[in-house]
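Bug: C-alpha coordinate stream looks shifted between consecutive jobs. Job 1:
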Amino acid sequence: MNDTLGEAALIDNALAAIGMVLARMEGAPPPLPADAPRPATAAMVVPMAPIAVQAPWVVMPSFTAEYRAIHCCLTSASALLGVTQTLIRQPASPTPMERLRQWDDVISQTKTAGRAAYQAALMLTDKQVD
Protein backbone atom coordinates (compact mmCIF):
# COMPACT_ATOMS: atom_id res chain seq x y z
CA MET A 1 0.00 0.00 0.00
CA ASN A 2 1.34 3.39 -0.93
CA ASP A 3 -0.52 5.45 1.66
CA THR A 4 -0.68 3.28 4.78
CA LEU A 5 -1.72 6.20 7.01
CA GLY A 6 -4.63 7.01 4.72
CA GLU A 7 -5.58 3.34 4.42
CA ALA A 8 -5.34 2.90 8.19
CA ALA A 9 -7.68 5.86 8.71
CA LEU A 10 -10.21 4.37 6.28
CA ILE A 11 -10.05 1.04 8.10
CA ASP A 12 -10.52 2.84 11.42
CA ASN A 13 -13.62 4.54 9.99
CA ALA A 14 -14.98 1.21 8.72
CA LEU A 15 -14.42 -0.40 12.13
CA ALA A 16 -16.15 2.50 13.85
CA ALA A 17 -19.12 2.26 11.47
CA ILE A 18 -19.47 -1.48 12.04
CA GLY A 19 -19.18 -0.90 15.78
CA MET A 20 -22.04 1.60 15.65
CA VAL A 21 -24.25 -0.79 13.69
CA LEU A 22 -23.51 -3.62 16.13
CA ALA A 23 -24.24 -1.35 19.10
CA ARG A 24 -27.57 -0.38 17.56
CA MET A 25 -28.42 -4.01 16.89
CA GLU A 26 -27.56 -5.05 20.43
CA GLY A 27 -29.62 -2.25 21.94
CA ALA A 28 -32.63 -2.45 19.65
CA PRO A 29 -35.73 -4.56 20.03
CA PRO A 30 -36.02 -7.43 17.58
CA PRO A 31 -37.49 -6.47 14.23
CA LEU A 32 -41.12 -7.49 13.91
CA PRO A 33 -42.77 -8.81 10.77
CA ALA A 34 -44.73 -6.12 8.91
CA ASP A 35 -48.08 -7.75 9.73
CA ALA A 36 -47.32 -8.33 13.44
CA PRO A 37 -49.31 -6.36 16.03
CA ARG A 38 -47.21 -3.62 17.61
CA PRO A 39 -46.78 -3.93 21.40
CA ALA A 40 -46.42 -0.91 23.68
CA THR A 41 -42.98 0.71 23.52
CA ALA A 42 -42.04 -0.31 27.07
CA ALA A 43 -42.80 -3.94 26.27
CA MET A 44 -40.44 -3.81 23.28
CA VAL A 45 -37.33 -3.19 25.37
CA VAL A 46 -35.12 -6.26 25.18
CA PRO A 47 -32.36 -6.56 27.79
CA MET A 48 -29.04 -7.18 26.10
CA ALA A 49 -25.77 -8.53 27.44
CA PRO A 50 -22.50 -7.20 26.06
CA ILE A 51 -21.50 -9.14 22.96
CA ALA A 52 -18.11 -9.96 24.48
CA VAL A 53 -19.91 -11.95 27.19
CA GLN A 54 -22.36 -13.94 25.08
CA ALA A 55 -22.65 -14.94 21.47
CA PRO A 56 -25.27 -13.02 19.47
CA TRP A 57 -27.52 -16.04 18.99
CA VAL A 58 -27.64 -16.41 22.80
CA VAL A 59 -28.05 -12.68 23.47
CA MET A 60 -30.76 -12.28 20.84
CA PRO A 61 -32.81 -15.50 20.96
CA SER A 62 -36.03 -13.79 19.84
CA PHE A 63 -34.44 -12.17 16.80
CA THR A 64 -34.92 -13.71 13.37
CA ALA A 65 -32.22 -15.96 11.97
CA GLU A 66 -31.51 -13.35 9.31
CA TYR A 67 -31.07 -10.60 11.89
CA ARG A 68 -28.72 -12.75 13.97
CA ALA A 69 -26.82 -13.75 10.82
CA ILE A 70 -26.35 -10.08 9.96
CA HIS A 71 -24.88 -9.58 13.42
CA CYS A 72 -22.48 -12.49 12.86
CA CYS A 73 -21.48 -11.17 9.43
CA LEU A 74 -20.72 -7.75 10.87
CA THR A 75 -18.72 -9.37 13.66
CA SER A 76 -16.76 -11.31 11.03
CA ALA A 77 -16.14 -8.18 8.96
CA SER A 78 -14.97 -6.31 12.03
CA ALA A 79 -12.51 -9.08 12.92
CA LEU A 80 -11.12 -9.15 9.36
CA LEU A 81 -10.70 -5.38 9.43
CA GLY A 82 -8.82 -5.89 12.69
CA VAL A 83 -6.49 -8.30 10.88
CA THR A 84 -5.94 -5.71 8.16
CA GLN A 85 -5.29 -3.03 10.76
CA THR A 86 -2.70 -5.22 12.48
CA LEU A 87 -0.94 -5.93 9.19
CA ILE A 88 -0.92 -2.29 8.08
CA ARG A 89 0.36 -1.00 11.40
CA GLN A 90 3.19 -3.44 11.89
CA PRO A 91 6.52 -1.80 12.70
CA ALA A 92 9.22 -1.74 10.02
CA SER A 93 11.57 -3.90 12.11
CA PRO A 94 9.55 -5.72 14.76
CA THR A 95 11.29 -7.55 17.55
CA PRO A 96 10.67 -11.30 17.71
CA MET A 97 8.29 -10.71 20.63
CA GLU A 98 6.36 -8.03 18.71
CA ARG A 99 6.13 -10.28 15.67
CA LEU A 100 4.82 -13.15 17.81
CA ARG A 101 2.23 -10.90 19.46
CA GLN A 102 1.10 -9.60 16.04
CA TRP A 103 0.71 -13.09 14.61
CA ASP A 104 -1.18 -14.21 17.71
CA ASP A 105 -3.54 -11.25 17.19
CA VAL A 106 -3.95 -12.04 13.49
CA ILE A 107 -4.66 -15.71 14.21
CA SER A 108 -7.17 -14.89 16.94
CA GLN A 109 -9.00 -12.33 14.80
CA THR A 110 -9.04 -14.65 11.80
CA LYS A 111 -10.55 -17.44 13.91
CA THR A 112 -13.19 -15.04 15.24
CA ALA A 113 -14.05 -13.95 11.69
CA GLY A 114 -14.27 -17.51 10.41
CA ARG A 115 -16.37 -18.73 13.30
CA ALA A 116 -18.78 -15.81 13.05
CA ALA A 117 -19.19 -16.31 9.29
CA TYR A 118 -19.75 -20.04 9.82
CA GLN A 119 -22.38 -19.35 12.49
CA ALA A 120 -24.14 -16.98 10.08
CA ALA A 121 -24.20 -19.70 7.43
CA LEU A 122 -25.64 -22.20 9.92
CA MET A 123 -28.33 -19.75 10.97
CA LEU A 124 -29.32 -19.08 7.39
CA THR A 125 -29.49 -22.77 6.54
CA ASP A 126 -31.63 -23.39 9.63
CA LYS A 127 -29.07 -25.62 11.36
CA GLN A 128 -28.89 -25.81 15.14
CA VAL A 129 -26.26 -23.40 16.51
CA ASP A 130 -24.55 -24.23 19.81
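Job 2, same session, no restart:
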Amino acid sequence: MRIKKGDSLVMMVKDDKIVLEKSEKIALLLDGEFKDIEAFAEHSLKSVWDNPYDEVWNKDAPVATPRGNKRKNQ
Protein backbone atom coordinates (compact mmCIF):
# COMPACT_ATOMS: atom_id res chain seq x y z
CA MET A 1 0.00 0.00 0.00
CA ARG A 2 3.01 2.30 0.52
CA ILE A 3 1.46 4.69 3.04
CA LYS A 4 3.47 7.86 3.52
CA LYS A 5 3.17 10.59 6.11
CA GLY A 6 0.35 12.95 5.09
CA ASP A 7 -1.53 10.42 2.92
CA SER A 8 -5.33 10.49 3.24
CA LEU A 9 -6.87 7.15 4.11
CA VAL A 10 -10.39 5.75 4.08
CA MET A 11 -11.31 3.22 6.75
CA MET A 12 -14.18 0.82 6.05
CA VAL A 13 -15.56 -2.46 7.33
CA LYS A 14 -15.77 -5.37 4.90
CA ASP A 15 -17.34 -8.51 6.35
CA ASP A 16 -15.70 -8.71 9.77
CA LYS A 17 -12.47 -6.87 8.88
CA ILE A 18 -11.39 -3.25 9.03
CA VAL A 19 -9.85 -2.18 5.72
CA LEU A 20 -7.69 0.89 5.03
CA GLU A 21 -7.33 2.23 1.49
CA LYS A 22 -5.77 5.39 0.12
CA SER A 23 -8.43 7.98 -0.66
CA GLU A 24 -7.07 8.39 -4.21
CA LYS A 25 -7.77 4.72 -4.92
CA ILE A 26 -11.33 5.00 -3.60
CA ALA A 27 -11.90 8.15 -5.68
CA LEU A 28 -10.80 6.30 -8.84
CA LEU A 29 -13.10 3.38 -8.04
CA LEU A 30 -16.09 5.67 -7.49
CA ASP A 31 -15.44 7.95 -10.47
CA GLY A 32 -18.66 8.12 -12.49
CA GLU A 33 -20.64 5.95 -10.06
CA PHE A 34 -23.12 8.69 -9.16
CA LYS A 35 -23.75 10.37 -12.54
CA ASP A 36 -27.38 9.20 -12.60
CA ILE A 37 -28.03 10.51 -9.09
CA GLU A 38 -26.36 13.83 -9.93
CA ALA A 39 -28.49 14.29 -13.05
CA PHE A 40 -31.67 13.41 -11.15
CA ALA A 41 -30.84 15.84 -8.34
CA GLU A 42 -30.11 18.67 -10.80
CA HIS A 43 -33.40 18.05 -12.60
CA SER A 44 -35.47 17.81 -9.42
CA LEU A 45 -33.94 20.92 -7.82
CA LYS A 46 -33.88 23.13 -10.93
CA SER A 47 -37.08 24.93 -9.90
CA VAL A 48 -35.59 25.63 -6.48
CA TRP A 49 -32.31 26.96 -7.86
CA ASP A 50 -33.59 28.80 -10.92
CA ASN A 51 -36.27 31.16 -9.72
CA PRO A 52 -36.36 34.97 -9.50
CA TYR A 53 -37.11 34.97 -5.76
CA ASP A 54 -33.82 33.21 -5.03
CA GLU A 55 -31.73 35.85 -6.83
CA VAL A 56 -32.09 38.28 -3.91
CA TRP A 57 -29.61 36.11 -1.98
CA ASN A 58 -26.98 36.48 -4.70
CA LYS A 59 -26.94 40.27 -4.60
CA ASP A 60 -23.88 41.59 -2.73
CA ALA A 61 -23.30 38.21 -1.10
CA PRO A 62 -19.79 37.71 0.25
CA VAL A 63 -17.78 35.07 -1.56
CA ALA A 64 -15.21 32.98 0.28
CA THR A 65 -11.71 33.03 -1.15
CA PRO A 66 -9.24 30.13 -0.85
CA ARG A 67 -7.67 31.65 2.26
CA GLY A 68 -11.02 32.14 3.96
CA ASN A 69 -11.03 35.91 3.34
CA LYS A 70 -14.24 37.35 2.03
CA ARG A 71 -14.81 39.65 -0.91
CA LYS A 72 -17.90 41.12 -2.52
CA ASN A 73 -19.42 39.66 -5.69
CA GLN A 74 -18.69 41.72 -8.74
